């Protein structure tokens, strides 16, 4: 039987308790421990049952409890206090210094991401990328950066994992009831749901919009599940990374194009957009279309404006991981759209191709993003290098180090990931500013003052909590799997808080190599069961639904964990998510990370571990490559970050290294107990991690870097290019076209230096060259000496560049240039000369993508 009418019944919150709604509808509760605890103290069991979702929790509190609370003056006073702190947080006037110009209250930056990890009860994330986006918003909020977030509202989110009795991963997709989550439907002024429309083939797709308050930041999520759409389109935003290519393309159209349309409909006009991964790259096209239509700009000029004010962060060091679409599909979807951009189909497709004239090349979202953004970055130093190499075809003739992709190393939002107990320690010994100012070195240096015993006791308490948590979870999962309560009871015997505990939690992607520790099971079993100095392991993670290899790996670990030899000391926890991550990262002794270099773009879980005094043992990849110290004082490295030709062999070697590290270093250090039966040296390293890693690898530092090196200059660019009704942009575009036209005829000859074969370190070498400019003025080019030490093959190992200046006009459009270069070290040294275009508003000369090198013998 179908109901005739449906209502949402909500509790009648007494007036005195009304502020509870405001607390519940702001994700601030996720990192403001007082609010979380306040909810929990109302009804701990219900708070757990509701998975710490405050909206569901309030909706389910019995009416008598509410009435009772309203009568409790202590409770009401405390509510008032907490509510006031939220209000103060939201209304503080200290806007981020980077944008202190006009305090309009308008966002300057729009941040686009396909997923967000904000809190474990809001399941619209799959892994690191989403958590990073969530942490970015949280830090932007704390820093009061004028930023707005854009994403998609997935009805089923990412899958939840459970295992069959024989350990095989199954996926389920529970429905997210948005009405019961801390998000609210955005309405028009007439009270109807606001709808955004985007074109999908000949049809128009409608999307409703949900708003989540992330502290001071508004995050808007587009949701295709609305009655205006035909049935088959309503499922478009059903799953995160679900469906095939076509669904992916449609989702990305909604995210990118729909996101920009939404901002317009909300009357928001951020100057800068930040694409967190290529999924949202269509946003750039939509901005171009707007500028063409509203300002009458030609495509090229609009593209200059958009690219100069766009920031793109790439996260995927594997070519196959980057979204690519077949040209016919793009053609089908963007037929009329490319007409609006006044582009031929081939020109349109060229925007997503490394070689625009290769008509067989697929359309790649990363290439599109690179073409439509001037601020491109990878997420660790090493990943920056990997990305420059990976995408160098986009900048032909470029030396790899000049490919304009930089790096900003990821960070984590400290208050979100640090345990309450450690937060209290920090409050006591560092002062309460560590929350606002986690990137301040001076503050973390005070960590030295935390007494060893206090730090250790706190850690042990967290470890005990972890053990309790694991036993409880394990009990539930065994019960669900086997239905036999007796088996479930065994869960109460697993793990021992006194034993060295190693945690591993992440996606079971092949390159992460969760199996490295299981290569030699006998050796592992011996370590687990050592009578004097045993270890124990907690593993957790999801394999991609189509990744059978990953699933087999999980099965292998589960099987082993059920064997008599390992039962007490090895646990696999189902359904890895932010909640499990928090427990693990706060309560382990060692956090193990084993990606195969160079495939981990950054990795962030180890940073969360460090903030909780957990020591990291990791391959030298991603962030660990820049954090690790060779004296092991901050943790251990597994190998030296090399890339082997034979991955099988590499896995073997690195698994041997782990066993050795454990046997020779980690285990003895942990069990080396001095006075008071505590491991002094271990504790010293815990502190060192707090003092040296936390101030660097946190999201405040990361967001500040984006603000300083990308948002701020992008914002300035937008203003310069839009001045005089975008005349500056038109000028830049026509300059670029004319330079591109002439570039082929430019030329260099008679490149010369003083005839001597020996020079001293730091002795200047005078270089001169004649340059043919074909009517361009010397101000429109940069002539550079490109010099540096050479390897035995005669190739540059490193290079410096020095500018040459035009000293004389020769006949027929030739100019004489001179400059000096200085070798900084002894050894073989060489130089050449190159030519780059130069235009003040184009900022980075490499952004134009044109270059010309001196040719030998001319
Ligand atoms: C931090 C985190 C990640 C990312 O961790 P990596 O080290 O980058 O693999 C993934 N999932 C969850 C739940 C996390 O908290």
From TrEMBL:
Membrane-spanning segments: none
EC number: 2.4.1.1
Gene3D superfamilies reported for this sequence: Glycogen Phosphorylase B
Superkingdom of the organism of origin: Bacteria
Annotated ranges, domain DUF3417: 13-122
UniProt keyword annotations, A-Z: Allosteric enzyme, Glycosyltransferase, Pyridoxal phosphate, Transferase
Catalytic activity from the UniProt record: [(1->4)-alpha-D-glucosyl](n) + phosphate = [(1->4)-alpha-D-glucosyl](n-1) + alpha-D-glucose 1-phosphate
GO process terms (BP): carbohydrate metabolic process
Pfam families linked to this entry: DUF3417, Phosphorylase
In-chain residues carrying the UniProt-annotated modification N6-(pyridoxal phosphate)lysine: 608
GO MF annotation terms: glycogen phosphorylase activity; pyridoxal phosphate binding
SUPFAM superfamilies named in the record: UDP-Glycosyltransferase/glycogen phosphorylase
Enzyme class: transferase
PANTHER family: GLYCOGEN PHOSPHORYLASE
Family affiliation: Belongs to the glycogen phosphorylase family.
Protein's recorded name: Alpha-glucan phosphorylase
Organism: Desulfohalobium retbaense (strain ATCC 49708 / DSM 5692 / JCM 16813 / HR100)
């Amino acid at each position: 039987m179908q109901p005739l009418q449906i209502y949402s019944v909500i509790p009648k919150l007494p007036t005195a308790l009304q502020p509870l709604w405001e607390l519940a509808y702001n994700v601030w509760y996720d990192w403001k421990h007082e609010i979380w605890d306040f909810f929990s103290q109302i009804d701990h069991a219900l708070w757990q049952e509701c998975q710490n979702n405050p909206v569901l929790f309030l909706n389910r509190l019995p009416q008598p409890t509410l009435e009772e609370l309203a009568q409790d003056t202590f409770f009401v006073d405390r509510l008032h206090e907490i509510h006031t702190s939220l209000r103060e947080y939201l209304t503080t006037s200290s806007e981020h210094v980077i944008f202190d110009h006009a305090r309009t209250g308008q966002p300057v930056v729009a941040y686009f991401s396909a997923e967000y990890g904000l809190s474990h009860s809001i399941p619209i994330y799959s892994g690191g990328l989403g958590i990073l986006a969530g942490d970015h918003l949280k830090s932007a909020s704390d820093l009061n950066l004028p930023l707005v977030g854009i994403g998609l509202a997935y009805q089923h989110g990412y899958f939840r994992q459970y295992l069959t009795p024989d350990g095989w991963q199954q996926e389920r997709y529970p429905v997210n009831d948005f009405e019961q989550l801390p998000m609210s439907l955005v309405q028009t002024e007439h009270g109807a749901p606001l709808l955004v429309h985007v074109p999908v083939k000949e049809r128009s797709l409608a999307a409703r919009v949900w708003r989540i308050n992330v502290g001071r930041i508004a995050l808007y999520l587009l949701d295709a599940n609305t009655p205006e759409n035909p049935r088959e389109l309503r499922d478009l935003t059903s799953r995160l990374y679900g469906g095939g290519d076509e669904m992916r393309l449609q989702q990305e159209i909604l995210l990118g194009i729909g996101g920009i349309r939404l901002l317009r409909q909300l009357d928001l006009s951020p100057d800068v957009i930040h694409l967190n991964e290529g999924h949202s790259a269509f946003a750039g096209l939509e901005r171009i279309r707007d500028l063409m239509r509203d300002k009458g700009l030609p495509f090229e000029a609009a593209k200059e404006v958009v690219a100069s004010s766009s920031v793109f962060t790439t996260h995927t060091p594997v070519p196959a991981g980057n979204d690519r679409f077949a040209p016919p599909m793009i053609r089908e979807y963007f037929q009329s759209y490319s007409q609006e951009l006044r582009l031929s189909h081939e020109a349109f497709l060229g925007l997503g191709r490394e070689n625009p004239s290769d008509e067989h090349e697929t359309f790649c979202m990363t290439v599109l993003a690179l073409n439509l953004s001037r601020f491109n970055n990878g997420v660790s130093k090493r990943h920056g290098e990997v990305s420059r190499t990976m995408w160098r075809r986009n900048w032909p003739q470029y030396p790899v180090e000049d490919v304009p992709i930089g790096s900003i190393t990821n960070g984590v939002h400290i208050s979100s990931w640090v345990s309450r107990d450690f937060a209290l320690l920090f409050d006591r010994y560092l002062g309460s500013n560590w929350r606002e100012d986690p990137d301040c070195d001076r503050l973390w240096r005070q960590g030295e003052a935390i007494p060893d015993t206090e730090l250790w006791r706190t850690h042990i308490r967290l470890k005990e909590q972890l053990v309790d948590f694991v036993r409880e979870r394990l009990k539930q999962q065994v019960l669900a799997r086997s239905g036999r309560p007796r088996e479930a009871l065994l869960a109460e015997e697993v793990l021992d808080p006194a034993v060295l505990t190693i945690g591993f939690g992440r996606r079971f992607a092949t390159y992460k190599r969760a199996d490295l520790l299981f290569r030699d099971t006998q050796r592992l079993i011996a370590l687990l069961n050592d009578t004097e100095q045993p270890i124990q392991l907690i593993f957790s993670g999801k394999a991609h639904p189509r990744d059978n290899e990953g699933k087999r790996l999980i099965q292998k670990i589960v099987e082993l964990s059920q064997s008599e030899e390992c039962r007490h000391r090895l646990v696999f926890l189902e359904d890895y998510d932010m909640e499990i991550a928090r427990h693990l990262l706060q309560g382990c002794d060692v956090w193990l990370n084993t990606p195969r270099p160079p495939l981990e773009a950054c990795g962030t879980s180890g940073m969360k571990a460090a903030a909780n005094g957990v020591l990291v043992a990791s391959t030298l990849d991603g962030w660990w490559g820049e954090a690790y110290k060779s004296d092991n004082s901050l943790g251990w490295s597994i190998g030296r970050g090399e890339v082997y030709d034979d991955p099988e062999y590499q896995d073997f070697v690195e698994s041997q290294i782990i066993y050795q590290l454990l046997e020779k270093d980690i285990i003895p250090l942990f069990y080396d107990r001095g006075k008071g039966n505590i491991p002094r040296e271990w504790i010293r390293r815990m502190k060192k991690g707090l003092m040296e890693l936390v101030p660097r690898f946190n999201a405040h530092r990361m967001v500040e870097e984006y603000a300083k090196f990308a948002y701020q200059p992008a914002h300035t660019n937008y203003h310069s290019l839009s001045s005089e009704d975008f005349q500056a942009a038109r000028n830049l575009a026509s300059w670029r076209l004319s330079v591109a036209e002439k570039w082929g005829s430019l030329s260099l000859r008679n490149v010369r230096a003083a005839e001597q074969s020996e020079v001293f370190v730091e002795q200047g070498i005078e270089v001169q060259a004649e340059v043919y400019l074909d009517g361009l003025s010397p101000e429109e080019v940069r002539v550079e000496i490109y010099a540096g030490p050479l390897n035995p093959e005669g190739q540059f190992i490193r290079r410096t560049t020095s500018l040459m200046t035009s000293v004389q006009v020769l006949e027929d459009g030739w100019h004489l240039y001179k400059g000096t270069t200085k070798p900084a070290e002894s050894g073989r040294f060489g130089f050449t000369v190159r030519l780059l275009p130069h235009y003040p508003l184009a900022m980075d000369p490499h952004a134009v993508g044109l270059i010309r090198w001196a040719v030998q013998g001319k």
